[in-house]
Amino acid sequence: MRKGPDRSDIPVVVEGLAPDGQKVSATDGTSPYHSLTGPKRVTTPSAADILTVCKERSLVETAKLLFEARTHLEECSHQEPVEGSSFQISKMVVLPNKGTAYFMSDIEGRGDLVAKLIDDERLIERWQKNDPNDQVFLCILGDIIDRSTSSSSLVDLLLELKCRYGFSRNIVVLSGNHELTPFVQKEDKLGLYREVTKRREFPSLREEVDDPITQELIEIKVSSEMCNGDTQVSLPANPSGRLEFAREGLWHLYNEVFSLFPTSLVTPHGAYVAHAGFPVRGNFKGLYGEAPRTEDENHDYLLALARYADAPSSRAVGETTVDITWSDLNPALDEHGCADIFRPNMKRGKGGKPGPGVEFGLKGFETFASIGKFTLFLRGHQAQVPAHPSVQIRNSTTWSYGPILTIANGMLGGYAVLDLAIKNPTPESVRIGEIQEQFELKF
After folding, report:
1. Measured distance CA(34)–CA(197) in Å, rounded
2. Cβ neighbours of residue 175 under 8 Å, at least 6 residues apart?
3. One domain for residues 400 and 297
4. Per the domain annotation, does 1 fall within a domain?
């Protein structure tokens, strides 16, 4: 295992934020840590500043970020373990056995809250210092997009920090069901499709109609339509029509990026983290056996576990990924006389038909936890608290049931903090916080 890079002397720069007023750029083809005139120490920007820059980006500059992110995330799928840092194998991220991890879930476009948490906890400054005694991680447990006017800028903020600022191993963004349902997005008149193709105001849009990046977005749109069975896609001749195609291409590009997000996270000391559930369908016992771990970091075991997490594409999502991103906790399955440990997910169904994922209780989770030696399951997804006497409400955004802790209201400012050095963590090991400042929700 090699040591992590020394980032203590990296100057952090973002477009337009040099303290002397000089124009700098993170997208000029050089390192985002350098101004146009070369390396230059500048004041560390706030996440709120970076979010503002993301909101004001043009269509072409937004597409450049997504193209870079797509390449970067593809490369991240098999990372070399780094001492004191995270690494990713397939669709699973492994955190180290020391440090601090912040968790948020179901943020649903509230980039202002994510930026405030980053700034309040000085995460950018701490990532830049890279102190081995203060390793810190920001873990987003899915559903970063929803019916808002700013979902795409939140995605841009996270990708900017992860892919351009060198904080790739410090920021983990897991898939939620919102990120893996592009056709639902398209049908939703208030979802990401409508935001990117209609509602988001891109500056200098008309001037970019002939840009090569715009043409590439148009080609993505055409290719996607042809893959969906439409073999006769007519390219519009007028600028307005071409820009509409480019906007749709940008939406498809967002979905390609989402398909590369990992789906689960584990810690060597016994925490399993995902948006909603865990692998259920398939003989997962037979895939990696039941041998207990005897060391804090048994990488062979973790690698075998990671191989079970199947990799979704933008057009097909495997059953395991559906179980991980869609399943619901149902304490009724643990009541006396109930023989089921899993049930079809009627909570997400319509018309008497089950929806995606499964319903599970403690007995169901224990079949998975006993193999992974997990003592804590940290999840989001399920904002509605089940009516059951064993459910403990921690605060307005968090509730627990046995070893399962649910933080499903990130859009209301809820977050959780875990000391990664704690062995065999439980919900009581997790500190719960709420961002107190009130914001006006805009839809």
Report:
1. 33
2. 142, 258, 261, 262, 263, 275, 312, 321, 324, 325
3. yes
4. no
The radius of gyration of the chain's CA atoms, rounded to the nearest angstrom, is 22
Amino acid at 341: I
Q: pLDDT tens digit string along 352-405? A: 888 888 999 999 999 888 878 899 999 999 988 888 899 999 887 899 999 999
Nearest to 14 by CA among 59, 65, 63: 65
Q: Are residues 203 and 336 in the same domain?
A: no
Q: Is residue 118 within 8 Å of 47, Cβ to Cβ? A: yes
Look up the domain containing 80 and give its range. 47-180+260-434
What the block records as the tokens of 343 is: 């049930």
What is the DSSP secondary structure assignment for residue 137, as one 8-state letter? E
| Contact between residue 312 and residue 303 where contact means Cβ atoms under 8 Å apart | no
Segment (H or E) for 272: strand 271-274
Same domain, 402 and 291: yes
The pTM assigned to this predicted structure is 0.85
The structure tokens listed for 391 are 């459910």
Q: Is residue 237 part of a domain?
A: yes
Q: Of 257, 276, 302, at which residue does a domain stop?
A: 257
Judge if 85 and 154 occupy the same domain: yes
Quote the tokens at residue 195: 């935001």
Residue 21, both tokens: 């007023």
Residue with tokens 């991890």: 101
Contact of 181 with 216, CB cutoff 8 Å: no
Is the same domain home to 202 and 265? no
DSSP-derived letter for residue 39 is E
- Both 226 and 312 in a single domain? no
Write the CATH number for 279. 3.60.21.10
Among candidate residues 227, 257, 287, the one where a domain is terminated: 257
* Helix or strand holding residue 141 (H, E): none
Whether residue 369 contacts residue 403, with contact meaning beta carbons closer than 8 Å, is answered with yes
**DSSP letters spanning 61-100:** HHHHHHHHHHHHHHHHTBPPPEETS-EEETTEEE--SSSE
Tens-digit pLDDT profile for residues 284-325? 443 334 433 344 434 444 444 544 444 333 334 567 888 899
- Cα 246 to Cα 63, 184, 217, 259: the distances in Å are 10, 20, 5, 20
Count how many domains the chain has.
2
Q: Examine the domain organization and report whether 276 and 228 are in the same domain.
A: no
